[in-house]
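#struct-help
A.M.: can someone run this one for me? Single chain, 391 residues.
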Amino acid sequence: MPRSYAMTATLPPVAPAPPLIDPPFGCLPLGDLLRRYEHMGEPLACRPLAQGLLNRGYRLTTTHGTYFLKHHLDGDRDSITRQHRVTRRLQALGVPVVPAVQDTEGGTVAVVDGHCYALHPWVDGRHRTGAQLTPAASWQLGSLLGVVHTCLEEVMRPAPHRPGHGTARVGAQGGPPEDLHDDWHDGLHEGPLDRPLDGAHDSAAPADTFALIDELLALVRRRAPGDGFDSLAEHRLLERRALVERHAHHRPPPGAETPIGWVHGDFHPLNLLYRGTDPAAIVDWDRLAVQPRAEEVVRAAAIFFVQPSGELDLVKVRAYARAYRLTTGAGAAELAAAVHRVWWERLNDFWILRWRYQLDDRRADPQFPAVSALVVWWTRRYEEVCGAFAG
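D.P.: on it. Structure tokens below:
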């Protein structure tokens, strides 16, 4: 059966599909919501979907059809509205996206009791991992990401500066520009986006990594005798400390300049739906941002093409990266530099262990064996990985 249009972040579903929510549909304000969409009909069923990190999703069936109802847990109405405008313009350029449904007043974000909601057409499709992609399909994937980046650049291209108007500022944490008005591109920009072609990109400091490793080790050992996961975590933490010590001189220099541009921000298998062998929809644009574009290429590949053993399928990576470079014109040096920065980022990253031991959140535990093994394998096969992206 097709997987549902489940807007998620980086986690796979961790539980069987929940039962239908019968009227009055739990605590969802469906009455208030649907009154804003007079053409939607009456609600018949509402099923919660896999919960992501940034939102909650529901499959909503009404007398007039099936929709994806998205409850935004983060973000405000204006920023979500800007994301919706971007997806509409990307759709006009042929990018497979699912723009939000407009309400009777032309809006796409409903605010009820301080919470933001949006409706999207329901898309039936399958999520496909790298193991399910042939080299030809991997080429198609790289080309698709290249189209996303080039079309975002066109959609977000600033208008010529007009007298009496200021410059738009890149939002906090690389988000969409602030102080945007509706007099150009329906509110995407106020004026020229005041950013350099290259941007500073600081990297993790070994001293901070060592301090975090010590903290996590203390938390792991406090659980003694623990279980198999705890034993693996301790092993990986000790192993990682040795690797960081050995490769500290390979840290990307602070303030290194790198080409940046608009990116999806969360491009991975659970945010891409296929019909058959063709991509049908790229979903979940909450992390739309200005970032190093080549790093999104590398991060996505490290999710799509990682094998359970923690190795990357370099044949597929090579096809994917070559297609991206051909589509965008990105050079081999740009991809090689991104490989180095993302490798260092992964070497110093412990987000799964922080969730488990600091937040008591175990949803990501199943990912840890492959993710932690990948860092070790990548370090040992660094030149081959770099060659697959840049060769």
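A.M.: thanks! The chain is about 40% helix and 15% strand.
D.P.: also worth noting: The domain at 198-390 is CATH 3.90.1200.10 (Aminoglycoside 3'-phosphotransferase; Chain: A, domain 2).
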